[in-house]
Specification:
Layout: H1 8-28, H2 35-44, H3 51-62, H4 69-92, E1 96-97, E2 100-101, H5 103-107, H6 109-130, H7 133-156, H8 164-189, H9 194-218, H10 236-239, H11 245-251, H12 256-265, H13 273-285, H14 288-306, H15 314-329
Antiparallel strand pairs: 1-2
Helix pairs in contact: 1-3, 1-4, 1-15, 2-6, 3-4, 3-8, 3-15, 4-6, 4-7, 4-8, 7-8, 8-9, 9-14, 9-15, 11-14, 12-13, 14-15
């Protein structure tokens, strides 16, 4: 039986295709302008499981893909993801990414934005080379949706009127859109029937929502309160003034003095360890953390349900294993 704390089955199933994807990623990150590959490889080689391109490959295998379009799509998905990370760190003024100084801290904001734009351009070129306008449309729409979600989050930063509905609108755009597109283009590469394509898109969307909910838990140390799981500082979202679900829920379900402390802490870039510990305790005692975990479980269940009508196979089992892995990150 697979270890539910990892994604070993998906890693094994996609290993051969991922070699081709990695070769394409490194080749397409090349440029005569040395700064471009320097920044690209700094982030690409910094770690991370490359989960999104593996989901593209896993979805393609689910329907018996035998061509090569899934390689282009998976590499394009990873470039889109990397570009959004470069842009996000500039917008959020982040100092760390995957346990290392963020690219903006090494090369500056201007270089990070421009290299992110270069990677997006390369992503679209790889899509065009595959020659499938439908897949190009799926990933192009995802790119626009992600940017729109970033703008909405920027508008809502520090806004105490942010609702749970607003929060879900942001993460569906920022995170779930790329997960959904990654799996959908995998199905397109395999010429899946419309029902199969819709199923894996729903799977990707629900997994993406659950993934972001888990990340938002981890930003406060997870259910157990430990740190370091994201390769960034615990409390970064709080410092950035982002109202994630643990905070949104706690603000409406805690005593007045605790609420005032949360409001005071939101957006405080100089918050100390003692104050951060108190914020986390308020989130825990108000059930903000537990509520967020319950939502992550709900969307995880919906991700699994989306694949129920697809024939059982090692690929389906591997995709479901990713759902289990994500939930266990928070514990």
């Amino acid at each position: 039986m697979a270890n539910e704390t990892d994604i070993s089955a998906l890693l094994a199933l996609t290993a051969m295709d991922m070699e081709a994807v990695n070769e394409m990623i490194l080749a397409r990150a090349a440029s005569q302008v040395k700064l471009v590959p320097d920044i690209s490889r700094y982030l690409i080689e910094a770690g991370g499981k490359r989960l999104r391109p593996m989901l593209t490959l896993g979805a393609a295998q689910l329907f018996g893909a035998s061509g090569h379009h899934q390689i282009n799509y998976a590499a394009a998905v990873e470039f889109m993801h990397t570009a959004t990370l470069l842009h996000d760190d500039v917008v959020d003024e982040s100092e760390k990414r995957r346990g290392k100084p963020a690219a903006r801290m090494v090369w500056g904001n201007q270089a990070s934005v421009l290299v992110g734009d270069y990677l997006l351009g390369q992503a679209f070129m790889m899509m065009v080379e595959a020659g499938d306008l439908e897949a190009l449309g799926v990933l192009s729409q995802a790119a626009a949706t992600i940017a729109e979600g970033e703008v909405f989050q920027l508008v809502r930063a520090g806004d105490l009127e942010t609702s749970e509905a607003d929060y879900f609108a942001i993460i569906e755009a920022k995170t779930a859109a790329l997960f959904a597109a990654a799996t959908e283009v995998g199905a397109l590469a395999a010429a899946a029937p419309p029902s199969g394509r819709a199923a894996v898109r729903t799977y990707g969307r629900e997994l993406g929502i659950a993934f972001q909910l888990t990340d938002d838990l981890l930003d406060f140390g997870g259910i157990g309160g430990s740190s370091g799981s994201l390769g960034k500082n615990v409390g970064d979202d709080l410092r950035d003034g982002k109202l994630t679900l643990p905070m949104v829920y706690a603000l409406g379900h805690t005593a007045t003095d605790n609420r005032e402390f949360l409001v005071k802490s939101l957006g405080n870039r100089e918050i100390g360890e003692a104050e951060l510990a108190r914020v986390i305790e308020i989130l825990r005692s108000s059930d903000g953390l537990a509520y967020t975990l319950a939502k992550a479980r709900k969307h995880s269940d919906q991700a699994r349900a989306a694949l129920e009508d697809i024939a059982d196979s090692p690929s389906r089992s591997a995709l479901n294993e990713v759902v289990d892995y994500n939930l266990r990150r928070a514990s």
